[in-house]
């Protein structure tokens, strides 16, 4: 059976050139970057070269990049690191954030912080005006994601950044899902902290970074050595970091081409459903190009996904971090309410490397076939 992978928003396969760079670095760059001998200096150069690529990809300075174990650690470092350094006990976020943000805020709330969780409209968008109205004298942090991982909505981060620019409030955005498919400029967005993970853009798992604008207060989560300018202790994972930089370099070169291709995939997929007479509603607006989240009336998501899998189509009902959970998507609940049909009949298809137009149309045709069969039951 030919399998068609349409869950790139959950994780993406490693690009062949990235896998090669990873393998080569594993075998040759084994020194500790903190060591002063030749092997250490070689590792340090690889680290510095990678940091330069990553900082350049978001228009930042090299020292503003902190290597982490991925997006979750980067989000946690941004939130807990800010709370530990700033006076004030109020944080603003949204109800549709990734759980790496939501659960970190929940922990701070249990510790006595006040958390304002902003709503979204039916398109999954946060209103900048709501952020402005929620600000208080004791607000220390606003954390709003750049692109939603379930429905793909792109939030008005630059608009929020502009209204926070002349305040003492730290502004963090989780850019894990948007990085590599949208151009990102931290100066244009006016963010102070920004989280990224490599495995979403064809890099290795277990590596990411947090951008920290110069002068932004941040306490470390880990204590040990003086790596990452004393901001993140632990010997750096040089092979993964080198592979991460390779993935970023490739994604930056191909970004416009990828965005156009993924939008074509999205339109082709919807066109097949329409031709087959399948009724559906697209969830969200102003979406990331690689995410298509649709609601299909008359179906239940669990048997639908099982049938897709049996036919070789890999998709999901939303965030991979909640796989196996019986709880409905918190994003769809926020958009439509707890009793809405969309929380039980929505599915996410996400596109990425290696896909062809033929595979996308085949997947759409099988989706239509399953939809018609299950809707009759």
UniProtKB/TrEMBL annotation:
<keyword id="KW-0479">Metal-binding</keyword>
<keyword id="KW-0411">Iron-sulfur</keyword>
<feature type="domain" description="Aminotransferase class V">
    <location>
        <begin position="4"/>
        <end position="361"/>
    </location>
</feature>
<keyword id="KW-0663">Pyridoxal phosphate</keyword>
<dbReference type="InterPro" id="IPR015424">
    <property type="entry name" value="PyrdxlP-dep_Trfase"/>
</dbReference>
<dbReference type="Pfam" id="PF00266">
    <property type="entry name" value="Aminotran_5"/>
</dbReference>
<dbReference type="GO" id="GO:0051536">
    <property type="term" value="F:iron-sulfur cluster binding"/>
</dbReference>
<dbReference type="GO" id="GO:0031071">
    <property type="term" value="F:cysteine desulfurase activity"/>
</dbReference>
<dbReference type="InterPro" id="IPR015422">
    <property type="entry name" value="PyrdxlP-dep_Trfase_small"/>
</dbReference>
<keyword id="KW-0408">Iron</keyword>
<dbReference type="InterPro" id="IPR015421">
    <property type="entry name" value="PyrdxlP-dep_Trfase_major"/>
</dbReference>
<comment type="similarity">
    <text>Belongs to the class-V pyridoxal-phosphate-dependent aminotransferase family. NifS/IscS subfamily.</text>
</comment>
<dbReference type="InterPro" id="IPR020578">
    <property type="entry name" value="Aminotrans_V_PyrdxlP_BS"/>
</dbReference>
<dbReference type="GO" id="GO:0046872">
    <property type="term" value="F:metal ion binding"/>
</dbReference>
<keyword id="KW-0808">Transferase</keyword>
<dbReference type="InterPro" id="IPR000192">
    <property type="entry name" value="Aminotrans_V_dom"/>
</dbReference>
<protein>
    <recommendedName>
        <fullName>cysteine desulfurase</fullName>
        <ecNumber>2.8.1.7</ecNumber>
    </recommendedName>
</protein>
<dbReference type="InterPro" id="IPR016454">
    <property type="entry name" value="Cysteine_dSase"/>
</dbReference>
